[in-house]
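Encode chain A's predicted structure.
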Amino acid sequence: MTRKNEPAHPPDGERLQKIIAAAGLASRRQVEIWIREGRVTVNGRVVTQLGSRARAASDTIRVDGRKLGMAEQPVSILLNKPRGFLSTCSDPRKRPTVLDLVSGVRARLYPVGRLDFNSEGLLILTNDGDLALRVTHPRNSCRKVYRVKVRGVPTSEALQRLRKGIVLDGRKTAPAGITVVHAENNSWLEVVLSEGRKNQIREMFKRVGFPVVKLKRIAIGPIGDRGLAPGAWRHLTAHEIRSLKGESR
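Encoded structure for chain A:
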């Protein structure tokens, strides 16, 4: 397959990210990331240019090789991701993904945000683009709570640096809530973030000299479920979805 950095269709088409978001796969912002990553094709051609257009009625649009169809009924589930699974829909190296854990759901689901391969905990999968936007967009400040084990006992100075924010990849992190749960040879902490950069918690603690040994997400906004077994999932309730969409703290 040849990659072409050119519009997918003449100007009379509709913007590609709008078409995919309207089908309920994800927010436009998330779709733009997929396009840049080369995960979207139009009529067999990889499209990486955000200005690309297409015709939903006549063009064949695929995301991660899966053909875009008509808008689906919204489906949103909560998964307790174990370690050893990727928070993505497919992997060229054939490693297991979170979709391998979900059976009996016919809708095309996409992870909302990510937990890295060695992390575990709560992850939302949905085809509701509005819900995905509410959970991931920085302006909504949807809080995520993590239980984190680090090597050693962080000093009060190190924790204060992280609480105030440190510079990662040229940008300062937002203030974080950090509470020490238990400290002995190693330490357990509760970390609350309102943003979600790639490997953020691991990079934060590595920067101050206390590498992460274990990381588990225990809440997304107002949603938590300590009774959900690793690898298990359930549908979000209507009340939980309304709560997530109204989350602005």
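The radius of gyration is 19 Å.
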